[in-house]
Amino acid sequence: MYRKLVAVVAITLLAVSTARAEEKAEPLPGFGMGIGIGLGNTYTGGTPATPPISILATFNLSDSFRLEPIFGFWVVTEGATASTLLGTVAGSQGGYGVQAGLGAFYMMRPLKQMALYGGGRVGMIFSGASATVNAAKVDVSESSFYVAPALGFEWWIVRAFSIGGELQVPLRWYSDPTIKTGATSTTVSTSKFGTGFEALIFMRFYL
């Protein structure tokens, strides 16, 4: 009787462990496209230029390594500004920003439907703004390079769709902005370094 019970328990445990091994062994989807939504950011030392919405391409090269190009473009409406240099100008006509970057991450999978990752993103941001000052149009353009250590998680609702979140601590190096008034162009010396925090949520769609 006891031998039969032990045999049944052993077979059950073996079946469960085999099922869990097969569950964990399922590879990550290889390629997907996603949308990132910024939840807000704080910066010191330069323009807080970060896109509210960005597009990303996810390449899971293995179960433990991911590459992820990211692209963002946004337009700042009239009355606002994409540059701190025009932040107090009443005649602001808005502006634009373009972001291009690449992320590299180490992946961990504590559960079949969940992944934790850590790594970083590097990239460039190009921004510009316009304003009318004393009946003259003033244009400002500037760029920055960033390195952003990041931690995040991802949860698969189904294999082809996931949601997730990410926290970044960007380190930014700013170029001197160029101010153009009519035919006159001037380079202004400003702060060269800035730090900050960013929080994002993602939706990814896998093929």
Describe the fold and architecture.
12% of the residues lie in helices and 64% in strands. It has one domain: Porin (Beta Barrel). With 207 residues, the protein is mainly beta. A hairpin with a 2-residue loop joins strand 4 and strand 5 (114-133). The protein has one helix at residues 2-25; strands at residues 31-44, 53-62, 65-76, 92-111, 114-133, 136-158, 161-168, 171-174, 178-181, 184-187, 193-206. The relative contact order is 0.19. Strands 1, 2, 3, 4, 5, 6, 7, 8, 9, 10 and 11 form an eleven-stranded antiparallel β-sheet that branches.
Topology:
Elements: H1 2-25, E1 31-44, E2 53-62, E3 65-76, E4 92-111, E5 114-133, E6 136-158, E7 161-168, E8 171-174, E9 178-181, E10 184-187, E11 193-206
Which features would summarize this protein structure in a list?
eleven-stranded antiparallel β-sheet, 1 helix, Porin, 207 residues
Compose a concise summary of this entry:
With 207 residues, the protein is mainly β. The chain is built from one helix and eleven strands.
Count of helix runs: 1
User: Could you say what the CATH architecture is?
Assistant: Beta Barrel
Describe the main β-sheet briefly.
Answer: 11 strands, antiparallel
User: Which CATH class applies here?
Assistant: Mainly Beta
Q: What structural class is derived from the secondary structure elements?
A: mainly beta
Care to count the β-strands?
A: 11
> In angstroms, what separates the terminal alpha carbons?
52 Å
CATH topology title: Porin
